[in-house]
Prior knowledge:
This protein is mainly alpha-helical. The protein contains ten helices and four strands. It has helices at 2-8, 12-53, 61-68, 97-107, 111-127, 135-146, 204-210, 225-237, 245-255, 259-276, and strands at residues 72-73, 92-93, 155-156, 162-163.
Amino acid sequence: MDLVDTARRPFWPWVIALMVVLASVGGLFAVAQTAAREAERTAADRSAARAEAWEVPSVAAAAGDAVAASVQTPVPDAVPAAVPGAAAPVDVVAADPTWTSTVAGRTGIPDRALRAYATAALTVQREQPGCGIGWNTLAGLGAIESAHGTHSGGSLRADGYPDPPIRGIALDGSASAAIADTDAGVFDGDAVWDRAVGPLQFIPATWQRWGADANGDGVADPNQIDDAALGAARYLCAAGEMTSPAGWRRAVFSYNHLDSYVDDVAATANVYAARAAG
């Protein structure tokens, strides 16, 4: 009797139950898809916000007007004998000393260093107007690389040379790339291996191409901050325009291939620009 009753039971309750299960699964799948899309949108929004948050370090408007009012200072036309292939000295656009004094007080950058950064930026702005490099970008580099020539308690002399000289480790391959001596120890005091030197930490091998004589003494010296700042400005602009966040980051990354380094320079440069604006 039970077997007969069981055989005659309708199947529609089972069909309905199956449909309910399938609907529930479909609903859960739809919810999961919606959550995934929302997560993607949130991630995209965060990425966009992060990109927009990267300011392009540049001369603040008021500060730019003051710097642009500077005068041109002729530099003797002589090729630096100590650096084969270095660019011949050119007329530099000297920063207004009143501006540098004021901004140095606001930012805490040594006046002697700020003068070098602003002069280099103005000079390269005239040479390569499409680059858009700002003084505060160079100041950001100088702060990270050597505390503006005052690394390890040193000081920046009036002639633009750090005292004591700033020299990095021997690039012998043990903790860095191996770069054999290229300057006979003239700049880094090492006739076996190259070392990064000066306020902007140039490697002599790199300085051979980008060396500049910005102070007009007849020698392009990476240990001297005017020369180093002008060389660094040209080096950065060789990577392309620096007026967009992507272009700016690309240029600074070319100086040191670390995203964290680029982040640090950007943060420092933006702080300087904000302080300079008062």
